[in-house]
Design brief:
It contains 9 helices and 14 strands. The protein is an alpha+beta fold.
Length: 302
């Protein structure tokens, strides 16, 4: 079926139903493992181990077109087929995993004890075991745990989470590539009850119009990718590309966020590094509007 713009599509339940038979999934995995993700008919049948040609031909025909292409004598894995593989390999459809907790080289903003990374129920969390506070939390696929030590899992969690946030703040959904809207919102309120940043005076509210992706990252995340902020941090001995999110005071400490107004929203985020502070002003869409350097021992503007 095609819509008014000529885009072909099928009902989602029909697409999911195509993979109700294991042989169709095996066909995709056989093509994924092949050189160039392509195999001629006989080799593909041999790879999946199905001797009944009639049965094999029927199930191959069901996935050919949308998920498997045909180029000359070869069957090829198309982009939608790769996405099916990705969903399976991520582990979120059929796996649960556990990871030993990891002590981190960062202090809890509430009590000063060391922060710890934990993983449970598909969520990576960074928090304090002494005072039970949580400073960061985000989903992490079980597939990301395979072949990694617990410290490597914590590092991968940080990199992936920040990448997701960066995509979302750029207006592109990291899950479905749909349009994401970003706004500032109060850290307290019904929609944020029990959220890890509900003690922050403001948070980022990101919401995709095309899928179920939404999140409420700390406001400090919005300033880290700004080139002037990244340059200032680097000049003060902090590499924002390799420093984990939980090591930035502007991300984990609510006292680093000052609300200047709510109609429209304006906030100031304060970072500290190398004996100096940087005050970054954001508008209601979390866009940086100004930056000012301040001495470390005062909030007075220069």
């Amino acid at each position: 079926m095609a819509d008014d713009e000529g885009v072909s599509h099928r009902a989602p339940e029909e697409a999911f139903g195509l993979f109700s038979h294991e042989l169709r999934v095996e066909i995709l995995f056989a093509l994924w493992a092949a050189d160039g993700h392509a195999l001629p008919y006989a080799q593909l049948q041999d790879r999946v181990g199905e001797r009944d040609s009639g049965k094999f031909n029927y199930h191959l025909s069901q996935v050919t077109g949308q998920f498997v292409g045909k180029e000359g004598d070869d069957y090829t894995l198309r982009y939608p087929g790769h996405r099916v593989i990705d969903a399976i390999r991520s582990g979120v459809l059929h796996r649960e995993a556990e990871v030993d907790s990891v002590s981190l080289d960062a202090a809890c903003p509430d009590c000063g004890a060391s922060l710890t990374f934990t993983y449970e129920d598909y969520l990576g969390r960074v928090g304090c075991l002494d005072c039970a506070s949580i400073v960061l939390s985000f989903p992490f696929d079980p597939g990301g745990i395979q072949d990694r030590s617990p410290p490597a899992v914590a590092a991968a969690f940080d990199r992936r989470t920040r990448l997701f946030w960066r995509f979302a703040l750029a207006g592109v959904c990291p899950v479905c590539a749909g349009v994401v809207e970003t706004r500032l919102a109060s850290g307290a309120g019904s929609e944020l009850d029990s959220h890890y940043a509900d003690d922050h005076p403001a948070v980022l509210a990101v919401d995709c119009a095309g899928c179920s992706f939404y999140n409420y990252p700390p406001v400090g995340i919005a300033v880290l990718a700004h080139p002037a902020v990244a340059g200032w941090l680097y000049d003060h001995g902090v590499d924002p590309r390799t420093t984990p999110a939980w090591a930035f005071d502007c991300v984990v400490d609510p006292d680093r966020i000052t609300v200047r107004g709510t109609d429209p929203w304006t906030v100031t985020v304060t970072l500290s590094a190398g004996g100096e502070r940087l005050a970054v002003d954001l508008d209601e869409r979390a866009a940086v509007t100004s930056l000012e350097r301040r001495p470390a021992d005062t909030d007075a503007r220069l």
